[in-house]
Task: inverse folding
């Protein structure tokens, strides 16, 4: 664990060094400021409460979209993996939505539903459900038939079978789809906010893009990236290791 943390620190340090070199070569803070030149702008945004408010709005959209996408995607993927006939009927739908550009879904949701919070969350959710369903479907196909037969012999109720037989085997697939889901969803949320919301990190990036304020664009971008990296390292990666531990015993 210590060596992994050291490698991560050195890797991020190398990225920071490249940034400093590029900013030095450009020699223009309006094009690419040095990392330490972002600190005053960050402190101003943080002190005014603006940064916290917009981060909170984006996180709310990420959490809502993530919860809906995971719930629907897990149910759909499990059903398709367990029921071949259903899989044959729904597989073309899955292929279509997997290849439908996120921007198209976002624009259509805004046109059909309006520039509302509901449209934003629906657009992000629809973009992620096919990916979750695809991963979970593969997990459902890989379920041990012997354990399933044993559960049938002992006449385990549906909920108990799901808890003790199905979900433990699906756990690595669920955590894998969750990790990729968070990485994709927050990026789509920023696009949704960029196009049609009046708050959030994406909206602020759009605002400062129009003002050609590179420093504030970087402040909002890196602030949210830091939050999502914390979620990844402190929550999702430990959960994935714990979910996969039973396969190593």
Result:
């Amino acid at each position: 664990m210590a060596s992994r943390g050291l490698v991560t620190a050195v890797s991020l340090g190398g990225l920071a060094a490249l940034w400093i070199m590029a900013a030095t070569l450009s020699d223009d803070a309006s094009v690419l400021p040095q990392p330490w030149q972002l600190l005053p702008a960050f402190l101003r945004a943080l002190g005014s409460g603006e940064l916290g408010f917009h981060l909170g709005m984006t996180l709310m959209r990420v959490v809502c979209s993530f919860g809906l996408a995971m719930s629907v995607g897990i149910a759909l993927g499990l059903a398709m993996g367990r029921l071949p006939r259903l899989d044959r009927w729904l597989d073309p739908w899955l292929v279509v939505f997997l290849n439908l550009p996120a921007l198209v879904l976002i624009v259509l949701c805004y046109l059909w539903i309006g520039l509302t919070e509901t449209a934003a969350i629906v657009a992000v959710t629809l973009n992620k459900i096919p990916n979750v369903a695809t991963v979970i479907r593969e997990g459902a196909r890989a379920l041990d038939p012997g354990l399933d037969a044993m559960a049938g012999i002992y006449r385990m109720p549906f909920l108990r079978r799901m808890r003790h037989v199905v979900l433990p085997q699906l756990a690595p697939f669920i955590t894998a789809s969750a990790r990729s889901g968070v990485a994709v969803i927050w990026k789509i949320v920023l696009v949704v906010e960029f196009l049609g919301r009046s708050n959030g990190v994406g909206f602020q990036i759009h605002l400062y893009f129009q003002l050609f304020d590179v420093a504030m664009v970087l402040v909002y971008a890196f602030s949210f990236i830091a939050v999502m990296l914390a979620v990844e390292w402190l929550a999702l990666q430990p959960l994935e290791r714990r979910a996969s531990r039973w396969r190593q015993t």
